[in-house]
Amino acid sequence: MLSIEHYLFLGLALFVIGVIGVITRRNVIVVLMSIELILNAVNINLVAFSRLYGDVAGQVFALFIIADAAAEAAVGLGIIIAFFRNRETLLEDEMDLLKW
Amino acid sequence: MADKLIFYFFAAIAVGGAVLTVTRRNAVHSAIFLITSLLATAGVFLQLRAEFLFIVQIILYVGGIMVLFVFVIMLVNLDVSLQQLQFSRQKWVALIVALALAGQVGVMFWSAEKLPGQILPGVTAAAADRLPPNSEAVARSLFSTYLLPFEIASILLLVAMIGAVVMAKKRT
Amino acid sequence: MQPAVQATMEFLKLYWVPLLCGVIIVALLPLIAGYIVLVERKLMADMQVRLGPMRVGPHGLLQPIADALKLLIKEDIIPENSDALVFWLAPVLSVGAALLALAGLAIGPAFQVAQDINIGILFVVGISAMGIFGIVLGGWASNSHYSLMGALRSSAQLVSYETAAGMALVAGLLFAGTLNIKAIVDAQQSAGVWFGLLSPVALFTYLVASIAETNRAPFDLPEAESELVAGYMTEFSGFRWALYFLAEYTNMVVVASVATTLFLGGWLRPFASVHWLDFLDYFPTLLMVLIGVYCLIRVPKQPSRVHQLFMLAVAALCFVVALVLLAPVILPIAHPFKAGILGSFWFLLKVGLYLYLFMWLRFTLPRYRFDQLMRLGWHFLIPLSIINVLLVGIALIAGSYFQLQGWALLLATTPAAVIGLVAAIVLLSVEQKTHSAAAPSAAADFYGG
């Protein structure tokens, strides 16, 4: 029988893989993609608890997180494009000056 | 039994896709594996009887956000990035810290006190007929109890749209 | 191992009918898509006062089979330096998304692969939106500038018109009150009037947006031969190209089915709830009998014996289909199948008319330039569809205040449609003025930066 722990561990696995991606990869686009993985893990958690307690609020919250992820991905990619036009690099180590 | 098989199937694809996402050298490959991971997550939502969220995940996340990612990866396509170092210098410390986090939270989940309702209620065919359709339930909740967050989310999306357009515009 | 096998057997016992339908659809669809292409070529020939494919088989009817054979035995060329994984994956994604979207559609009340899902229409729209990846990744994997530009343009076009199509569907769904496909058609039956009549602006918007969604003329710049060779499909040869082609025609069938379900009454005959018009139930039979009689009349005029026999066979087939369509109306034992068999006929007829409109527009209108296309999408269709949702909402509130039902609802929605039409004309004239005043280099902004 499936219990809530199955979904919690799945969410945890995705979350940790996302965290490893964020703090380890140098390519900022892959970092953004790992952030999407983290948000996804949170969504799984929310929907699992919504199913457990029969309350649809968890799914509504997950819906807002998806909308928020869209907004954040758009703005983040805009920043990356703007930065790329100036410095021709996609590596986080080389994005180290606030003003040049 | 079938429930368990389906869950493990989707979970395996989700975790496998996630691992491949953060380890591929080519950014487009990473994007493709992230798409598979997101699709598997949508499958998990479907299995949890959250049908509206399943289709929203596919339309918005996979069909919207990931298309945006793939566009940007193609626009800033650098051939030299395939020869650069893939992981930063702190990769081993990062790995240890992340695994410590995983261990800590995992132990917490494992040893948590079992609440009475912790087995996910199995839905038989008869019981499913009495549930309100999922999209109707989400819509009712969204437009009555959570109307204010809904409006704030619309304003957030509007602000993000304006910001993205302003930032990505060429300075002529 | 044993419980897994047992679980699989139980699953098969419950769901073998939809699975069989799915397998049949996937197996037959390449053939059907091939014959839709033949119909298109014959129509194109007719509008250009010529005969079209006539050589392969009687009247060119075996042309699709010849084409399929050719594509299958063609050499599979993979460009140098292309990404093997993505090159393999792109056509698969396109055709997979298109075929999966077919699973959610219902030809008759009982013919649905994914039965009774409560997100019906949204499922179809969402899954067919995944076809965008097939295009983008295909263009990128080809390692060629023309392909990449074609892919980026094509996916930008698809994404832009998806919003307009979605809002048009929302306007139709406001009448239905549910996303479930069977419930939408049942709502049209109980209202007695098709939703396309209640909101013609939404039907028009969805028509234009669906033409752009499937990359058909006049919005087919990404695959125009004079512009970008074949756009994102340039480097794909043989079977891979056949998959893209199949995906395009399957997408056409999918959007036609969605429009038919939501706006044109699905599997209902015209005036489905008016009982004194029940003699219309004989119309399908009459149509097939007329076609059979026409074929019979043309038999003596055929050039050779093979052609004569073939025409006789076609006439016989028409008469058999006419009998099948007559049986549920006349024989009492076949009454339960009436909605299914006659419904499928009406559904396929409406889908056929919608596809005929697509083909007619292809051979009549010249192509839109890419910046004109984007301007049309963003500056005209999206505002129009949003205004239409607003107007339809107001009309519905007025309708429920005065307690209008069914045909009487037209009293409330016709003013909304007229205001929508006025808004469309205003938007177009505003667009005309600003566009003619815009700098001539405005087009450069749209060519991918």
Description:
The complex is a heterotrimer of chains A (100), B (172) and C (449). Chain A is mainly alpha-helical and 100 residues long. Chain A is built from three helices and no strands. Chain A has helices spanning 4-24, 28-53, 57-87. In chain A, helix 1 runs antiparallel to helix 2 (28-53) and helix 2 (28-53) runs antiparallel to helix 3 (57-87). The mean pLDDT of chain A is 90. Chain B is an all-alpha fold. Chain B has two domains: 1-82, NADH-ubiquinone/plastoquinone oxidoreductase chain 6, subunit NuoJ (Four Helix Bundle (Hemerythrin (Met), subunit A), Up-down Bundle), CATH 1.20.120.1200; 131-172. Chain B has helices at residues 2-23, 27-47, 51-75, 91-110, 125-130, 134-144, 147-168. Chain C has 16 helices and no strands. The model of chain C has no long low-confidence stretch (mean pLDDT 86). Classes of the chains: A mainly alpha (100), B mainly alpha (172), C mainly alpha (449). At the A-B interface, helix 1, helix 2 and helix 3 of A face helix 1, helix 2, helix 3, helix 4 and helix 6 of B.
Map the helices and strands:
The complex is a heterotrimer of chains A (100), B (172) and C (449).
Chain A: H1 4-24, H2 28-53, H3 57-87
Chain B: H1 2-23, H2 27-47, H3 51-75, H4 91-110, H5 125-130, H6 134-144, H7 147-168
Helix pairs in contact in B: 1-2, 2-3
Chain C: H1 2-47, H2 63-73, H3 84-102, H4 120-129, H5 131-141, H6 145-176, H7 181-191, H8 195-198, H9 200-213, H10 225-228, H11 239-263, H12 283-298, H13 305-330, H14 338-364, H15 370-401, H16 409-437
Helix pairs in contact in C: 1-2, 1-14, 3-4, 3-5, 3-11, 4-11, 5-6, 6-9, 6-15, 9-11, 9-15, 11-14, 12-13, 13-14, 15-16
- Main β-sheet of chain B, in a few words? none
**Termini separation of chain B:** 62 Å
Number of helices of chain B: 7
The average pLDDT value of chain B, as a whole number, equals 86
Which fold name fills CATH's third level, the topology of the largest domain in chain B? Four Helix Bundle (Hemerythrin (Met), subunit A)
Multimerization status:
heterotrimer
Q: Using the CA coordinates, give the radius of gyration of chain B.
A: 21 Å
Low-confidence stretches of chain A: none
What fraction strand of chain A? under 5%
Principal-axes geometry of chain A comes out as elongated
Overall shape of chain B: globular
Number of helices of chain A: 3
Structural class call of chain B reads mainly alpha
> Could you tell me which chain pair has the largest interface and how many residues each side has?
A-B, 70 and 83 residues
Q: Helix coverage percent of residues of chain A?
A: over 70%
The biggest sheet of chain A, with number of strands, parallel, antiparallel or mixed sense and barrel status, is: none
